[in-house]
Structures are given as structure tokens and as C-alpha cells.
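Final report, closing paragraph on structural work. Over the funding period we assembled a curated collection of sequence-structure pairs, and we close with a single example.
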Amino acid sequence: MYLILLHLTAVLSISFSYASDCGCHLNRNSQCSNEEPHNKYSKTFNEGGDGEVKTCTTFDKSDMVLIEAASFEMGTDKPVFESDHEGPVRNVSVDSFYLDKYEVSNGKFNEFVQKTGYKTEAEQFGDSFIFEMLVPESEREKYKDFRAVQAPWWIKMKGVTWNHPEGEGSTIDDRLDHPVIHVSWTDAKKYCEFVAKRLPTEAEWEMACRAGLRQKLYPWGNKLNPKGEHWANIWQGDFPLTNTAEDGYLSTAPVDSFPPNKFGLHHMAGNVWEWTQDNWLNDLDAKVKKGGSYLCHESYCWRYRCAARSFNTKDSSAGNLGFRCAGDVK
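Its predicted structure, as stored:
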């Protein structure tokens, strides 16, 4: 039974001590206290095959928004996390482009897999990172030696994949409209290429997030809960000990839920982190991600702001990491 169906106002508790790192930079090579060998990644795993799979030559624009060329103020002069290089504010010009209204869903990714036989990197490695609260309390103790050292609420669990997001026995059958998770940057890129799209650049993503609003914190303005309503799927309560799920979700939410921004884009804040094209600084193996996730909270990981940014290595995957696609105007 998917844990999101638990009573929405339930207060869930986790008992463990935690370090100062929220785990936003959690990468596949993050050290666990007792690392167990995983299946070795083979670069040739997805090359070749019994038959040729043809990708699309043009992309479907029906669930995309055309964002016209413009200049905007990217970044912030009031950074929350200096180490994330959120600033300074600078004027950036972006050409016209298309962007998906929604994060790529389990249903859409499943169609891709059914047509191509694609195996994600989590499937090849044999594991992925899952948030402890999504593991039955009675089973958490056995994973005490498989936690990220700097973020012990993250468990590196065998058998966790995009279609088994909580491990063996879990399913996506009741959440095909939720964002696909446990996908690496490479996985996201392969999907985008198959549908004749691409990942957005960081500048494109941030301009789309701001939707014409100048230097506002969130896609809709500066107030987190306008009119007393929730506008994003983020953490409520005391991270990482208690999540009251006041916004209706303990984990991911459907990709078309919560109000869109002025460009008609859903979940540009919260729900799942979204991969972008850009390298993190000069590291070719690390990629920028934007938007924060359902695990973000102002007291600890205030990264669902438009200017906020983080990164993971290209082969990393986790239960709060997904993507949406962009397309060129031709």
C-alpha cells in the first residue's frame, strides 16, 4: 500500500540523530556507514539490442508552453546558501523555447520503457536512495548501516527503481500521474532524446519558474501560502522528524496538482527536483538541479525558491529527483 494514502493529517515521527547536511547534494558515490557492493554499471548495457528503436523526429507540443525570448534577472543578491552560488543577480537573455507544463510522469516514462526496453541506471546499479519515512518503521533498523553519513534519513536500498519506488513489492500502478523518480541525469536525457526534446538549461528553467515576476522568491510571488492555501508540495512540520502533510501529500503529488504559475507550469517549486542541462561549476560529472522537492522546508532546505539551485552527479538517483523536458523553437 502506497504510504501517501495514509491519513493526510497524521503526524509521523522518525527517531534518529542527524547532521547538518540536508542531503540535497546526495550522490550515488555518497558514503554509507557499511557500503555493500552494488551491480556494476555497464556503459554498454543500453547500447545495441535485438531491434532498432526509432526515436521521434518532432516533438508533441500539446502539453508544452511556448516561452518567448526575453531577458530576466537570474539569481539573487540575498543568497540563502552561499555554497550553492545562488548569486549575484545578473541579466540573462534566453531565446524562445518550449517547456513541458508538467514533470514527466510515471505513465509517460513507462510508455518510453515499454517502447525501448530502456534500463535506468538505478536498475543497473541495483539500488537507489529512499527517504526513511517511506520505509515501514518495523524495517528501518535493518538499514542502519546503509544510510548516507551526512544525511542519515536517506537509505541506499537494493531493488529501489522508478517502477518500484519503495523497493520490492512496491508499485506505481496507483500513481501513474505522479512524477517519475529514481531517474538519473543520463536517464532523463535519454527520455528527452526519445521524444525529440531535451533538458532545459538552468537559465531557461529559472526564467520559466519566475514567469515574468522580478526577483520574487517563488513562482507565484513572495508569500509561501497565498490566501492561506498551499501552492507547492513541500515539507510541513519539523524536518526530518515530523511531517504533518498539511498540503495533502507525504511524498510526491500528481504532476497536474497545485496551481500553475503565470506561464501555466505546474510544480516549478517542490514535488521533485528537476534535472537541467548545465554542469555544476566546472564539474562535467555533476549537473544542476532546480526546484526543490517534497522534502524541502525553510528551516533546513529552503531550496524551492526560483533562485535556489543544487546538484548531483549524473548517475545519481533518489526518491525526490525527476525532470521535465524542453524543446527548441524551429
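Confidence is low (pLDDT under 50) at residues 1-20, 33-51. The CA atoms of residues 120 and 321 lie 13 Å apart. We thank the funder for supporting this effort.
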